[in-house]
Amino acid sequence: MQVLGRRQSDRFCRVSLTWFPIHISHAGSFGVGLIINLVIPCALFFSPGLGVTHPHVALLRHFPHSRGPARDTTAKAKKQSKALLGDPLPKQNAAIPIQVQVPAPRAQYRSVSMSSSGSSPFLLSNIPYSNHTPSPFFGLGSEHPFANYWTSRGGLAEVVGVLPAKDQADILVNKYFDAVDPVYAMIHKRNFYADYERFWSLPPAEKQIADPVLVALHFVVYAMGTQFISTPSGQERAQIAEFYISASQQALRLSSYLSRASVRTLQAMVLICYFLMNDNHASDAWSFGGILMRQAYAMGLHRDPDIITPRCSQSDKQQRRKLWQAVYFQDTFLTVLLKLPPTTTFSDVRVESLTDELDDIMTNGSTSNGSNDPMINPMSISNIAPTSDTFPPYELSDRQYIRSMWHMANLVQRTVCLPRSLDNPLTSSPTDKASLLSQYHDLHKSFPTHLSTHDESEVFTLAKENPRKLRQNMFFRSNFWHCVMIINADENEGAGVSCDVKGALEAARMALRAFFHFWEYLKVDAGVWWVFQHRAFEEALLMARILGAQEHPLSPNYEYGISPASDPLLLKSKEDVRKMLEILDLAGGAPEMQKTRTDVLRTAFADIMW
User: Fold this and answer.
1) Closest C-alpha among 354, 352, 332, 356 to residue 343
2) pLDDT confidence of 392, banded at 50, 70, 90?
3) How far is 548 from 505, CA to CA, in rounded Å?
4) More reliable by pLDDT, 425 or 148
5) Please, are residues 158 and 151 in contact by the beta-carbon 8 Å criterion?
6) Cα 299 from chain centroid?
7) In sequence order, what are the beta bridge partners of 263?
8) Spatial CA neighbour of 444 closest among 477, 396, 416
9) 51: which strand partners?
10) Which residues are CB-neighbours of 63 under 8 A, at least 6 positions away?
11) First to last CA, the chain
């Protein structure tokens, strides 16, 4: 990391005018060098009369004197440090390095199970929460997750001033649509690119008065894209991504997002939540997600668009349905992991309303003669600027995936999230448990084969020919079998419901197998997604605890004294836990989070005495 800055020769630093361009260079996965150019206001480093104030900067020294007005300094810095993929740093830009010290984080995780009092003790999850100082707010970190680089009067111009170079932004957007969009398909790609290219074509002065929400959406896409760029240094990548997410949040703040909301606002907020999870801020994501849910309700996303927005175009209605599904899905499956109450419990949006219609026709309007014939929306993008690629070729398969995940979330929220949020067992009798598992298996049969298959050859074919469907397959399988595992492991002693060891191990192995495939074919992605990693950790932990308590084979006809190792399922499960431990030693993510997971799982594995 190299920094050029201005010496603080006077007691007071003019924080609103002076800027420090930071250059971070690393090699990407593209075979060429990636140079990130960040221009950060000097408020990052100085506060008037107080010297160094930012917690991540321990020492600043040897700043060369700047000459001329601040805007000349900024222009010169940008000219000298133009961020281009593959371009080396200019030799004339010999910057003096600074020492940057990040405070040693304090590892935190929930030490006791938050599942139902009647549930299995094997479901203890040990979630590593945010990595800062303790807070009385149910044990979560107290430091704000968005670093503040911004001055009080900088406005949107300050945020726009730190945009990456256009060619670099193109790569980050492309990475987002490769890695994130397949599993959370809520942004209309063609519309996004139309707005994106229009924004970048604006002169600098007009960019500074653009829609702040659009800028926020762009920056969170850059941040998410950065998380999936392969770099030698995970810390550098995290710092760059965190800077972009801070810019996104600042743009949202400038848009007054707490009192105003739009589709773009909620899209940005959904992505910010996932970013925070991936950045070891799961607790902050939970809290930020609460605001997201309230805004989604305020916008009426939970209502059927045919009822509350009947004259909207078909594509706008479908966009609202996709966005609601993204909010609903995020809330449901985060509560599965955190074992806290879901919020998106009120909605009349039907899954089947997300149809396969690809035209932009208003089916609920009326023509001038009062008939109910379809009416073309004259203001639709398709009508104003018709193209042959209004929708990408994968649109219909994406809708299949969205509907499938939506059906699953409906069942999971009702049968898993709600009972556990009130410390209730999931089932009231062995018959009830069998019936609930039957519902899950019946639903599984209704899903498209390419989403549910776990056959090695079919998964290999997806990896080779269709990485988008591969990602959807992994997320679908992981979520589904994780929930089946929870139901099998759940106990209700008073009602005679015990842990189904065989069913729990088989479901856990199915879920963990999805993570192993993810790690094999998309290792970078598998190392980034917190939700996927933590599900896999919980699955391996449950298996280890079941195996540690097992004293004999599962067969009812086993001979006394025979080791559990003679049982094929128990032996394979033990090997899966061992493999997960090996992956945890290699996986990316926050070091303290990985250490917590590894230590907990290794301790449980050591308790397997056979």
Assistant:
1) 332
2) confident
3) 13
4) 425
5) yes
6) 22
7) none
8) 477
9) 47
10) 4, 5, 6, 7, 8, 96
11) 50
